[in-house]
Design brief:
Elements lengths: L2 E5 L13 E2 L9 E7 L27 E5 L5 E6 L5 E6 L3 E6 L6 E6 L5 E6 L5 E6 L4 E5 L5 E5 L6 E6 L9 E6 L3 E6 L7 E4 L4 E6 L5 E6 L4 E5 L8 E3 L6 E6 L6 E6 L3 E6 L10 E6 L13 E2 L5 E5 L5 E5 L5 E5 L6 E6 L5 E6 L3 E6 L1
Antiparallel strand pairs: 1-3, 2-8, 3-4, 4-31, 5-6, 6-7, 7-8, 9-10, 10-11, 11-12, 13-14, 14-15, 15-16, 17-18, 18-19, 19-20, 21-22, 22-23, 23-24, 25-26, 26-27, 27-28, 29-30, 30-31
């Protein structure tokens, strides 16, 4: 079966020595999108250009069922949909953050530069106009995606910052966020303040962070194989410790609709679903264990996700696929190939049946379910 690809924009990346650079007008010179469309065959097996064939009913507004986004020159560690579902941000070992449109040609409309190390996590703030980034250069930054301005750069960590997260997502606060680092510190930031407003000393490297929608509770995954939660009204002692993983927790994510669940991925080759409701009857709060998304010797920080309706859980894996399970039954619903390297992060679109994935193969896939 022949495969027809339509290239939207292809150009080389120009070198720059600027510490902080945003290139909106010619951003598509950095990245390109390819719509993957397959032409059906006739019964005899040859390609047909004369016959009109019925095609499956589309389930999303994407230009094609699968869009392949390329342009990063390093491994992509993170990717996220904006809360309004119109944009994507991706961060890479090339120290850059790419901004993409979801619909149409998936144009790479902006490139944010300023980090001195790999971008390890990117998160959108509730307003869909700001993002926060965590980097191996020991800093965390908040950016305005409409102007490209770096609003704040936090440099209080002393080691790689593995994770960042909005603090009060449910209230629409686009100034407060947290960051977790290899230095064992969980820092609380306000974009209007110069220094962190609070600090938690965990003692072991923090690999991932998440926060309740209200901001009343924050969670951190770590090398201790646990997920530790703190009540922000009393940061002196943990309020809860979720135990069950037998190896390092690589990523955690809060359920987007109710905030009742937390999903975690670990180097023990499992993905776990935790019930955070106060009346949970499960002693260790682990409601379900998902298998089928293995890690490898690379030990990437693979980050899982829960869909908007809280019916599916997804994770990348070292086997170069994206795995999607039923949240209720734990059965695998989809095992999606396409990447040529480990899949580092998966995200669900906030309103349509679209999934997003990033990989060490330096590319991003958009696909409809």
């Amino acid at each position: 079966m022949s495969e027809h690809k339509r290239k939207v924009s292809i150009a080389s990346v120009s070198d720059t020595s600027d510490d902080h650079l945003y290139s909106p007008s010619n951003a598509n010179a950095h990245g390109s999108a390819v719509a993957l469309v397959k032409r059906p065959k006739t019964a005899g097996g040859s390609d047909s250009s004369a016959l009109v064939h019925a095609v499956p009913k589309r389930s999303s507004g994407l230009q094609a069922p699968i869009m392949h986004l390329t342009g990063h020159s390093g491994e992509i560690a993170t990717c996220r949909f904006s809360p309004d579902g119109l944009h994507i941000a991706s961060g890479s070992a090339d120290k850059q953050i790419f901004l993409w449109n979801v619909y149409g040609d998936c144009e790479n409309y902006g490139v944010l530069q300023g980090h001195k190390g790999s971008v390890l996590e990117v998160q959108w703030m509730p307003c869909s106009e700001r993002i926060i980034t965590a980097s191996a250069d020991s800093s965390v930054a908040i950016w305005d995606t409409t102007t490209g301005e770096r609003i704040k750069r936090g440099r209080r960590h002393t080691a790689a910052v593995n994770s960042c997260c909005p603090l009060r997502y449910g209230s629409g606060d686009s100034d407060a966020f947290i960051s977790g680092s290899d230095d064992g510190l969980l820092l609380f930031w306000d974009a209007r303040e110069r220094r962190p407003v609070s600090t938690v000393e965990h003692g072991l490297p923090i690999t991932s962070t998440a926060a309740a929608h209200s901001g009343a509770m924050v969670y951190a995954g770590s090398l201790d194989n646990c997920i530790t939660g703190w009540d922000i009204r009393n940061l002196a002692e943990p309020a809860v410790v979720l135990r069950g993983h037998s190896d390092t927790v690589t990523g955690i994510s809060m359920s987007p609709k109710t905030g009742n669940y937390l999903v975690s991925a670990s180097l023990d080759n499992t993905v776990r679903l935790w019930d955070l409701r106060p009346y949970c009857r499960i002693p260790n709060r682990c409601e379900r264990v998902f298998v089928g998304a293995p890690h490898s010797y690379e030990k990437n920080l693979i980050r899982p996700s829960i869909d908007r309706e809280e019916t599916m859980v997804a994770s990348g894996s070292a086997d170069r696929t994206m795995t999607i399970w039923s949240l209720r039954s734990g059965e695998i619903k989809y095992k999606l190939p396409g990447h040529k390297g480990a899949v580092t992060q998966v995200d669900f679109h906030p309103s349509e049946p679209i999934v997003l994935s990033s990989s060490v193969d330096k590319s991003v896939f958009l696909g409809e379910l």
